[in-house]
Amino acid sequence: MGSTGEFGNGKAGGGGGLVVPEIKFTKLFINGEFVDAVSGKTFETRDPRTGDVLVHVAEADKADVDLAVKAAREAFEHGKWPRMSGYERGRAMNKLADLVEQHADELAALDGADAGKLLSLGKIIDMPAAAQMLRYYAGAADKIHGESLRVAGKYQGYTLKEPIGVVGVIIPWNFPTMMFFLKVSPALAAGCTIVVKPAEQTPLSALYYAHLAKLAGIPDGVINVVPGFGPTAGAAISSHMDVDSVAFTGSAEIGRTIMEAAARSNLKMVSLELGGKSPMIIFDDADVDMAVHLSTLAIFFNKGEICVAGSRVYVQEGIYDEFVKKAAEAAKNWKVGDPFDAATNMGPQVDKVQFERVLKYIEIGKNEGATLVTGGKPTGDKGYYIEPTIFEDVKEDMTIAQEEIFGPVMSLMKFKTVEEAIEKANCTKYGLAAGIVTKSLDIANKVSRSVKAGTVWVNCYFAFDPDAPFGGYKMSGFGRDQGMVAIDKYLQVKSVITAVPDSPWY
Amino acid sequence: MATESNGHRAGGEENGGGGGSFKMPEIRYTKLFINGRFVDAVSGKTFETRDPRTGDVIASVAEGDKDDVDLAVKAAREAFDHGKWPRMSGSERGKIISKYADLVEQHAEELAALESLDAGKPVGVTRVVDVGNSLHSLRYFAGAADKIHGETLRMSRQMHGYTLREPLGVAGLIVPWNFPAVMFFSKVSPALAAGCTMVVKPAEQTPLSALFLAHLAKQAGIPDGVINVVTGFGPTAGAAISSHMDIDVVAFTGSTEVGRLIMEAAAKSNLKQVALELGGKSPLIIFDDADLDKAVELAIGGNFFNKGEACVAGSRVFVQEGIYDRFEQKIADAMKNWVVGDPFDPRVNQGPQVDKVQYERVLRYIEQGKTEGATVLTGGKPCGKKGYYIEPTIFTNVKDDMIIAKEEIFGPVMCLMKFKTMEEAIARANDTRYGLAAGVVTRDMDVANTMARSIRAGVVWVNCYFAMDSSCPFGGRKMSGFGKDDGMHALDKFLAVKAVVTPVHASPWF
After folding, report:
1. Fewer Cβ within 10 Å of end Cβ, chain A: N or C?
2. CB atoms within 10 A of CB B467
3. Contact B449 A91 (CB under 8 A)
4. Banded model confidence at residue B189, pLDDT cuts 50, 70, 90
5. Where is the composition biased (Basic and acidic residues) (chain B) (predicted)?
6. A449 in contact with B, Cβ within 8 Å
7. What is the nearest CA distance from B505 to chain A, expressed in angstroms?
8. pLDDT (tens digit, 9 = 90+) per residue, B419-441?
């Protein structure tokens, strides 16, 4: 696991010549300043390549969240951000996008060291996607339209779409940068002010973005970042009496907690983007090599730490044998190593907890009687690396087929007919995504309409776009990210009705 | 500067620079811009563009005719059918359009100066308004390019239906001389966002900024052939565009008269789509309860801004009888402070009319008004010894059927009339073949709402005037034209809607 250290500022650390980037921001960002936590406490964030501590970060708790919400509320009620024209907000957001692009290498390195994400992909996927997301919403800010209404009586009616107020954003550790901008960009466009709690596993890039936001001219108090833990800082946000909307991406388990807290406190608006157990359905007429490529990507990309991972792969019986052989080989060739090494396909799991959890599921799979095709073990003597793992002879009711593993573990199953595939695909409490591989138009249309998932990918996977709404059905959550509809989470609709007496026209 | 009667001071004798610290722009681009290069006209001909402060020639510009339009269309067609522009993602086009805006911003001073020089517009205004508007338009549509949506349809049978909105193809854009750069971008920005390619014919009176903007477009990374600029005259270059068999849509801003010609030519040739933003005789209606100072300010701005060379000029001012006398007194007083002079002098409110033809035309209408029996409250004469300056003119005792009350004068001439009731105001406001804009000045909500709904115009301004914005759809009714500029609706002119329908067999869900 050597590494190439072409990242300038970093220092070589650890035994293997690891590059560790310089870490500039480790305090809470509240009202435009970096400050210590009220309690003075800090917590560690670790490098999953080694398990070593990267740095200590200020640990926010309720008192800090209170300060952040206060700053956000002030910025909303009396600051300029919500009152600026959408066009002007868009200009500031575009500047932030410029700054993200200028610092892309440094930011990609931060996520690499903090989350174990591939440096090369960070530079060519995560950072550009984040900038594109910002620019999309920068251009949306002046296109937030209500409607004039044909009201039945002698009235004039129209709707105004107003920013909802102070937004709480709680995001996960798997795509620290993408997740930050996924929530923050539409909230900014809408004119809201924000308190972000990044995941405790990956607080570093969020703090850097706070710094860049200030440089871009986003006023103090509009974006606040409070790194800390779920049960303390996260809970403080979801139960805060002065937060108007909370947007969360993470596990279904935490999603429940957040929704309950929202209900118990001030009935704040809630949007949840939760887990998944997404089916990849491969038909006999599929191009087998494409199908293998897509399904490999669908479960091993980002070390399986992705909500839309295609973790259940259904292959029609006609091509099943050929598929298994090729998929096993592809998994064996999927290189596990230091994410700063350009040759690596997959870095370590994000931390010890996840690492142990995935290994536990693998053991359960073996105990339940699934057949291990490849992988199934940790790898390397340091850090949290796991071999890409494929199980076959998986039954629908097995734990590994029902529960989200969030690691590089594929469950492979065979099917006969389209109807069977549809039924099995839907046999889950989740409904986030689905993949279909086929050349048949009819099958594509039929299955895409029948699968209960928020995104259906046909002959592709992970095909995200800032303009395409994304979100779940069933216990994968509700509310959408991306697209113009994402802004709805951060808007209130107000109807204004005026009497128009005696007009010749209405 | 010499002071004339009525307090209107004329500048311009001291040619070239007035009292301002403004640098005269260097004229760098005077050839046609086709397929990414500046080229002479096929015929080698050139024409002159003149400085309206003096009538002197500023520069000789290549004169495009049918042959040049053919070359431009050929380049645009190639760029559309085989080039990358229409096939790029909206997001990528948006980035390039943003870059274009950045370049325009970097060259703001030069652009503002070109506009002022070529069109006689006050330089303080062109720097803030014309350049500002141009930037806003480009950035608005840069952000729109990746948000062009069709719909999926709930069809009544077992069908999967959706619409695609596709770029229409090659657009012909014929733009006028009153706001040359603003007009350029009002058409070019949405056309670029939609993924179309285009041939722009700027007005012969004001060709300079369009050529400069073509140069900046290339620097911004807009591929060759996407934007082509053919300078020249209406009956030659303009006609070649509107009757071209390989242009898919022509969008025009200008006079109703020329709009007709364009539409006829489009019909006779290939039935290309047409969008026309034409003239107006817009009413400004001031009620008894209006804030009087505000009303006077709006009437002045609405008539004399940009020397009255604005399609939306509120040239028919109706004042309710209760405040009429006070209004007349106040506006006559206010006009004493209105300065006519060299547009490069920052103190000036009104520059010269754009050229000799317009100048003589406006003076003819003024004489017409006097002959018809209207009373000159202020102005009524040319101003200064050189160039095309006219005193801001207000007529009173105007009858609705007078020529000056019916025809678009396109100069600094206001018709001031009295009215009694709201119903009368509505009837008289609508008594015109035009329908571009209208202004209503009142504090009463019911009056505002009723007037807004009853006037047949494309935009109604309540307690404001010229309140335009890149996000607000703008365009006329009746003989003021059809089609919208600004707002997401502006894209429609440049998009084709295609429905795609597939049967969905035996599916449990539709």
Report:
1. C
2. 12
3. no
4. very high
5. 1-12
6. yes
7. 7
8. 999 999 999 999 999 999 999 99
A273 has catalytic annotation: yes
Question: Is there a contact between A62 and A256 (Cβ–Cβ < 8 Å)?
Answer: no
Q: Which residue of B has its CA nearest to A94?
A: B98
Report the alpha-carbon distance of residue B399 to residue B276 in Å, rounded: 29
CB-based contact, B157 to chain A, within 8 Å: no
Q: Whole-model pTM above 0.80?
A: yes
Contact at CB, B143 and A138, closer than 8 angstroms: yes
Q: Residues for chain A: how many in total?
A: 506
- Strand, coil or helix: B346: coil
CATH number of the domain that B437 lies in? 3.40.309.10
Helix (H) or strand (E) holding A420: helix A418-425
Instruction: Give exposure, B315-330, as e/b (b: 16+ Cβ within 10 Å).
Output: bbbbbbeebbeebbeb
CATH number reported for the structural domain that contains residue B137 in this entry = 3.40.605.10
Nearest chain A residue to B444 by CA distance is A500
What ipTM was estimated for this complex?
Answer: 0.81
Q: Kindly report, residue by residue over B342-380, the tens digit of the pLDDT.
A: 999 989 999 999 999 999 999 999 999 999 999 999 999
Spatial separation of the C-alpha atoms in residues A75 and B428, rounded to whole Å: 49
Burial of B407 (0-12, 13-18, 19+ CB in 10 A): middle
Instruction: Mark yes or no for CB contact A442/B504 under 8 Å.
Output: yes
CATH number of A28-274+488-492: 3.40.605.10
Tell me the C-alpha distance between A168 and A402, whole Å. Answer: 31
- In angstroms, the CA B134 to CA B470 distance is 9
Contacts of A86 in chain B (CB under 8 A): 471
> A84, A87, A145, A154: best mutation site toward chain B, by most B Cβ within 10 Å?
A87
Tell whether B24 lies on the interface with A, counting CB pairs under 8 A: no
